[in-house]
User: Fold this.
Amino acid sequence: MNTETETQPVIVVGGGWAGLAAAVELARHDIPVTLLESAKQLGGRARSVQTGSMQVDNGQHLLLGAYESTLGLIRSIGIEEENVLHRQPLSLYWNDPANTPVSLRTARLPAPYHLAWGLLTAKGLSLRDRLSALAFSRRQEKRHFSIEEDCSVADLLVRQDQSPSLVRALWEPLCIGALNTRLDEASAQIFLRTLGDSFNHARSDSDLLLTRVNLGAILPQPAADYIERHKGSVRLGQRVTELNIKDDKVEGIQVDETRYNANDIILATPHHVSLQMLKPHAALEPVCEQLQQLDDRPICTLYLQFDKNIRLGRWLQGSLGTLCQWIFDRSLYGQDGLMAVVISSDGEHMQWDNQELYNHVIAEIGAQLPQWPTPISWQVIREKRATLASTVGINQYRPDGQTPIQGLWLAGDYTNTRLPATLEGAVRSGLHCAQRIISARRHRHQQ
Ligand SMILES: Cc1cc2nc3c(=O)[nH]c(=O)nc-3n(C[C@H](O)[C@H](O)[C@H](O)COP(=O)(O)OP(=O)(O)OC[C@H]3O[C@@H](n4cnc5c(N)ncnc54)[C@H](O)[C@@H]3O)c2cc1C
Assistant:
């Protein structure tokens, strides 16, 4: 490869968190980069949305202390964590219309004892359930939170003697919250990996990081500014339509009639979009076969604007046995009286229209919080393809970042990070591709 081609920008297709992470990492290492995003804004599935006079996110997001790569990335572009995120030790509270509420709070002890204490002292669980949750987590520590042959989380929990009441009050909400996939189809491998990452290393890994500002201000906008300050370029409204590949090497991409030449391309689009672009190329057939096995699950968020003095009393609250799974109090963002109600994964509610969904949610909230008035206004945001379905055996179909085509890389939450489809998975995959390109270029320079 000659010097001229080395100075050609790397092209990153897609300005979600994976593409942004890749582009920032390249820019940080003085590698010219052009990021092309089809939408009019950056952020992909984690973006800010303007609805009337209100700026919200396309869905309420929660980060964890274990999101090492995401937090490192944010720091690397000059954002102070405490300005954009509110960190609190793990403390969960679930209202249960049929029983007493369940709550769990980790202790100020080193991991994993902080969790052990939290499980032992959890409120709303019987002594038997607390002991059996503790025994489950001790057994998983010994097995390094891994399982050889994947099975559903539901099967794993039955085998591990977790009672139906414990599953309902603890494991089910954790599994749906983390994997956005129902217990009976969720991958035990991915679930255990998530538990291990959050509870088995440092105490702070299980911290909850609530966003204090809109998602756009956490990464997308500051990342774009950073890339441009480092001689990169970010272009919106650029829908990539085709990959130019010759002799199993990338040559560039097409945005309608415009061609961009490149020797390295990071395709950071959602898996169904990547599949369409890879399909015409015979060498990528095995990757396409993997991508065809992937499926998605939705997330619905209802934003309910109450009088400004209405407060939840905590930043987030779960709900058991109801359609509403979590309520977030957005006064943390300075949006007084605004509540975000989250419904993860699929279900009958996806067939209802917005009014029906609202009526159902408001009836549930009325039963749990009868002192609250009717909302002044409301808004439903449905993300039908919110995340990859983390189903049993799915890891074997998640492709690697490197493809059989020289210079073509895949990034995104769906790739083989072994994590559920999260911001952290997306960021890690983007960083990984960028680091492979950086080290290959370094290697060539040294030769
Ligand atoms: C409602 C909701 C709630 C969530 N909650 C959480 C949470 O609490 N915690 C958490 O960690 N994760 C959460 N997630 C998951 C997280 O948002 C995603 O895992 C992450 O944003 C995926 O990033 P990505 O870069 O891999 O993909 P995407 O965000 O999908 O980015 C792909 C980008 O490619 C662009 N693109 C598509 N086609 C083209 C094309 N032809 N040319 C150019 N550009 C193109 C898209 O417009 C998009 O910007 C949630 C997701 C949703 C939707």
In short: The pocket of flavin-adenine dinucleotide is lined by residues 13-19, 36-39, 44-46, 58-59, 61-62, 239-240, 268-270, 273, 299, 301, 383, 386-387, 412-413, 421-424, 426 (CB under 6 Å). The chain has a mean pLDDT of 95. The chain is about 35% helix and 20% strand. The chain has three domains: 3-46+65-79+214-294+392-446, 101-206, 297-388.
